[in-house]
Specification:
Blueprint: E1 2-11, H1 16-26, E2 30-39, E3 42-51, H2 56-64, E4 69-75, E5 85-95, H3 100-110, E6 114-124, E7 131-142, H4 147-161, E8 163-167
Antiparallel strand pairs: 1-3, 1-4, 2-3, 5-7, 5-8, 6-7
Length: 168
């Protein structure tokens, strides 16, 4: 079996997941893992599938022909969450303003920390007015990275960009 990672993007509509799943199944594939979301009328997802090696190219071609979707299939990379990696979870909350994601992701990258998953949202602040920014970041740090130093850097940065960050 060959493992492929699919990225799927298109306008949101009923049946998108079913159409992708039908194509995967028609080529003898198995839907393994996925992260799918609708946001502001658009649908996007990433899906890990396994398929018999001799059918992988036909699956790629069939996925490219799905109506109204841009779908790309590529071979799966290595699993970043190997035993030599440590997981970090950051929870961010603060007044929304440009640059929060850029600053936090740059600080993590500078330490060799890779973001595995990130969810963000903005919402109205209940009493104070304005918008709040919230994020949860799950990241992998190589075994040789000083996690305490990363946490210290993130805490220093949080004060600078005026958000609250907890690092677990």
């Amino acid at each position: 079996m060959t493992t492929l990672v699919l990225t799927v993007v298109g306008g949101d509509r009923a049946g998108i997941v079913a159409s992708v799943a039908d194509v995967v199944a028609a080529h003898g594939g198995n839907w393994e893992n996925s992260q799918l979301a609708e946001l502001a009328g658009a649908f996007a997802g990433i899906v890990e599938v396994s398929v018999p090696a001799e059918r992988a190219e036909a699956l790629r071609t069939a996925l490219a022909d799905l109506d109204g979707l841009h779908t790309v299939a590529m071979p799966a990379g290595s699993d970043a969450a190997s035993p030599s990696h440590r997981q970090l979870v950051l929870r961010v909350l603060g007044n929304d303003h440009p640059g929060i994601v850029r600053e936090l992701s740059s600080a993590l990258s500078a330490h060799g920390v890779s973001i595995d998953r990130m969810t963000t949202q903005t919402r109205d602040a209940a009493m104070a007015g304005g918008r709040l920014f919230e994020a949860t970041v799950v990241a992998s740090a190589p075994g040789d990275v000083d996690v305490a130093a990363v946490a210290d850097e993130i805490e220093r940065l949080a004060a600078e960009i005026q958000v609250d960050v907890t690092v677990d």
